[in-house]
Structure formats: C-alpha cells, structure tokens
From TrEMBL:
Protein name, as recorded: PAS domain-containing protein
InterPro entries noted in UniProt: DUF1457 (IPR009922)
Pfam family, one: PAS_5
C-alpha cells in the first residue's frame, strides 16, 4: 500500500476551480473525435499541443493491464517534484495508494475522457484537476495511449 491514501474525486467536467486550460484541451480533443473514436496520436503533435505541453504526460498501454509513462510533462514534474518517465502507472499506485491504473484502463476501454479533482500526492495541501484523454496510435487500432493533463486548481481551499 502507498504512503498516502489518495482521494480522487470524479468531476463531470471542468468547473470554476479548474484552470481554463483544461477545458480548452478537452474542447480540442472533442473536435478531433471521429465516428466516436478517439483522436489519432499523429493529429496531436507538439505544435497542436503547444499551449499544454508541459502539463501533459503520455501513458501507453502494456499487456497485463498496466501502463508505461512514456513522457512526464515538465510542468507536472516541477509541480510534483518527481519524474515518472519510463516507470509504470502501477508504481505510482503502489507508492501513493492511488487508482491510476484503474482510471487509465477505464478511459481506454470506454474511449471517453475523465476528470478528477485530487490533492497533489507530494504536496497534500494543494488541489489539482486532472484530465485523462484516450488516444489511438493507429487508425484501425484501439485507444492505447492516454494523455494525462494536470493543472493546479486556480481556486484552493482555505486552510
């Protein structure tokens, strides 16, 4: 079990506490959905994602219901103080008692984005909003990648 028992509160979508960048990223993703299939990875290139680049981590599905973190966004690393690139989502779950693998699996299976409000694992007094977006690497393939976007909430609870 992890160091922290993490609370990940599901949200219907961005709210007043969320950084507006998350809503804009969701709108971009939705504009690229075709025939109810998630966008292709090649359409979400660095030029298209420029406004969000440091705030996105890329997870790729592995056999055995786990995900490898292909890239941990630089702003996420700065916010958390940890770089999880090349580690597995299950490593994060083990360390923090989170349910990241379950959430990533749900997103790839349902092909629908998911929002959560959560405390920053490493800085428990800060809340952030997380958006998980399913992505396909190939036209005829499954949703096998997830973009995780993380922003500190612009409204924080008073202490």
């Amino acid at each position: 079990m992890g160091e922290v028992n993490v609370k990940e509160e599901g949200l219907d979508g961005p709210d007043e506490a969320c950084d507006p960048a998350l809503g804009k990223l969701l709108a971009l993703w939705m504009s690229m959905v075709c025939d109810n299939e998630p966008p292709l990875r090649q359409t979400l290139d660095p030029f298209t994602l420029k406004p969000w680049l440091g705030h996105i981590s890329i997870f790729e599905a592995l056999d055995g219901n786990d995900f490898v973190i292909r890239l941990d966004g630089s702003a996420i690393v700065e916010l958390t103080g940890e770089n999880w690139t090349a580690h597995r989502a299950s490593d994060v779950d083990r360390k923090y008692g989170s349910h990241l693998v379950d959430h990533l699996s749900d997103v790839t299976q349902t092909k629908r984005p998911v929002f959560h409000r959560m405390m920053i694992f490493q800085k428990r007094h800060f809340l952030a909003s997380r958006l998980l977006l399913p992505i396909r690497k190939s036209m005829d393939g499954p949703a096998n990648q997830v973009f995780l976007a993380l922003y500190m909430d612009i409204v924080q609870p008073e202490e």
